[in-house]
Amino acid sequence: MNSTMPSVIIARNAADAAEKSARIAAEALTAGEVLGLATGATMLPLYHELARLMAGIHLPHNGVVGIALDEYVGIAPETPQSFAHYVKKHVMEPLGLTPERIVIPDAMAPDRAAAAQRHENAIRNAGGIGLQLLGIGANGHIAFNEPGASFDTRTRDVELAMETRAAQAPQFGNIARTPLRGITAGIGTILLAQRLLLLATGPAKASALAAALEGDISPACPASALRLHPAATIICDPAAAARLTETSRPDRKA
Ligand code: GLP
């Protein structure tokens, strides 16, 4: 694949970044596209705004609407820290969707390789992902594709980086209780979506965003894979954009 620069939009602030992202997601849903769902704190204002924009709008089909990127291994869907719970609370219920319209990797399955394959099949059976929403980890991860993951990876069982576990530990009480593994869509899986939309807000994401856009296109920074996708957009706030140079800052171009 040839490399190409994602469109970079620097919003006025985090709320504005979430609103701009939500509008794109609402248009995709209204057009009948399948939405790829990221989790994390960054996405919460996006989903809040998405529910507001979609109120009273009937989706044009009865099939799968949203497919989650990842899930912690060993965390049951009913558990508040699970991504299944997150998606139910912030996407499924606010959009008035029934459970069969949302797909989440089954990370409680005894055979995780089979569960990962079922997830890939579910994406294919849904007709592929139209718009894939993405967050970014402070170490440059996308979904649970940690640094080192190759760009042709598909959905699979992975070990979480210590940095990722440390970032999530407050939700689980302490690092010892934080899951060690996850099932995640691969970078190759993500790159198959028609369009990618990465939302990054806050100073903790500034280094990762600069590495993704201006460093080498390399598994060392999983988010740099967005530069291999022909239709990737990054929406960020000024804090997350703070380390971008002229190369990727649209507001600094002549
Ligand atoms: C987790 C998720 C990612 C998400 C990241 C950032 O690791 N697997 O998909 O992008 O967290 O989360 P936050 O938005 O809370 O910083």
In short:
With 254 residues, the chain is α/β, with parallel strands linked by helices.
Would you write up a description of this structure?
The strands form two sheets. Strands 1-10-9-6-2-3-5 form a seven-stranded parallel beta sheet. The chain has a three-stranded antiparallel beta sheet with strand order 4-8-7. It has 254 residues and is an alpha/beta fold. It has helices at 14-30, 44-54, 83-92, 112-125, 162-172, 187-191, 206-214, and strands spanning 7-10, 35-37, 66-68, 70-72, 102-103, 131-134, 156-159, 181-184, 195-200, 232-236. Helix 1 (14-30) crosses helix 2 (44-54). 2-amino-2-deoxy-6-O-phosphono-alpha-D-glucopyranose (GLP) binds at residues 38-42, 69-70, 135-137, 143-144, 164.
Shape: globular
Please provide the ordered H/E string of secondary-structure elements. EHEHEEHEHEEHEHEHE
List the strand order in the largest sheet: 1-10-9-6-2-3-5
Give every kind of bound small molecule, once each. 2-amino-2-deoxy-6-O-phosphono-alpha-D-glucopyranose
How would a textbook summarize the main sheet?
A: 7 strands, parallel
How would you name the oligomeric state of the polypeptide chains in this document?
Answer: single chain
Strand content bin? 5-15%
Question: What Rg do the Cα atoms give?
Answer: 17 Å
* Count of distinct strands: 10
Mean pLDDT value? 96
The percentage helix is 25-40%
User: Separation of termini?
Assistant: 28 Å
Count up the helices: 7
Can you tell me the residue ranges where pLDDT is under 50 for at least 5 consecutive residues?
Answer: none
Structural class: alpha/beta
